[in-house]
Amino acid sequence: MDFLIYGRAALSGHDHSDTPELDDAHWSYMDGFADRMTARGPTLSADRQTWTGSLHVVDLPNAEAARAFAMNDPYDQAGMFTEHLIRRFDNLLGRTMWDVPRRGDDLPFLCIADSSSDGPSPGNEEVPAAPALTERLILWGRLRPVHSPRPSGVAFALVAPDRDAVRSLIADERAMLGWYPNVEIHAWEFGGRR
């Protein structure tokens, strides 16, 4: 079962040039899950200069394993995250980020629209992505709370020239997004060893 695990960075951020040993420990830990990953990578500030968090979509047996995955990450053990968003992830594309060819100079972005796990779900279960968006998608899936079958949101990664282009695409595809009111847009990079 796939889980989306998004760790939000502590306010101070992280300069990867200052902690090569910690970065190597993080990558080594993640390498142990490489054959179960759908996507991985850091989120960045709007100028792509500051680390703001880490995304992992990984196949794990249950919610407890997903929590352990997050807590055993050397970054988490070093206090680099303030919290983790952990959701079940229904992969609507049926592929990994490594299956997607690169598109020119477009940049990757991660978008997360997740409602409260306690509130009603406003999302539409089966809305296909429009062709204009489909050709840009790297990752797209329905989010569900770890102990509930009902949707709580959607998450997707796509390539676009800039953040304004992402906002425009989102505005045009509200139905595909399930009408979730708030969509976080993060600059993102493909993860792995540098």
Notes on the protein architecture:
20% of the residues lie in helices and 34% in strands. The protein is α+β, with helices and mostly antiparallel strands and 194 residues long. Strands 1-3-2-8-5-7-6-4 form an eight-stranded antiparallel β-barrel. Strand 2 and strand 3 form a beta hairpin. It is globular and about 40 Å long. The protein starts with a strand and ends in a 6-residue tail after the last strand.
Blueprint of the fold:
Layout: E1 2-9, H1 20-31, E2 37-44, E3 51-59, H2 63-71, H3 74-77, E4 81-91, E5 107-114, H4 131-134, E6 137-144, E7 153-160, H5 163-172, E8 184-188
How is this structure best summarized?
With 194 residues, the protein is an alpha+beta fold. It is 20% helix and 34% strand. It is built from five helices and eight strands.
Query: What is the strand tally?
Result: 8
Low-confidence stretches: 117-124
Oligomer: single chain
Largest sheet: 8 strands, antiparallel, barrel
Strand content: 25-35%
Helix content: 10-25%
According to CATH, what is the class?
A: Alpha Beta
CATH architecture: 2-Layer Sandwich
Which short descriptors sum up this protein?
194 residues, globular
